[in-house]
Design brief:
Length: 142
Amino acid sequence: MLRASYAPMLSDQDQLIFHTLVPAEHYLRQVNALVDFERYRATMATCYHASDGRPADDPVVLLKIGFLQTHYNLSDREVLAATQVNVAFRYFLNLALTDTLPQPSLLTVFRARLGATLYQQIFDGIVGQARAAGLVKDRLRL
């Protein structure tokens, strides 16, 4: 079951810290500004039951965590450990400094809930947006 709203609850102090510590030219600021992760919320919502179960963690945050994993080549545990201390990661995820992070096993459950095909389609769409915005460079790799 999804909540009605997942609006971030960032305090003025959180916003000041993010503004001060995450430079304007930081890669994750650029990704946040140019890639629309929200467009996939409705697609992901079809994978959740409308009324059964406890309210789920924000699927867009989980998708962004997957983006961080891929970009920085991190495991489930590593990405969450890095998010615990990396202010740029928290900024990217719209998580306050006091917000708790999901358990690493939730990332596995999230990917299974979406299924490999849908997860890959969404991820390809994100990479396509990043490529169109010039954030991803295609290079021949040998």
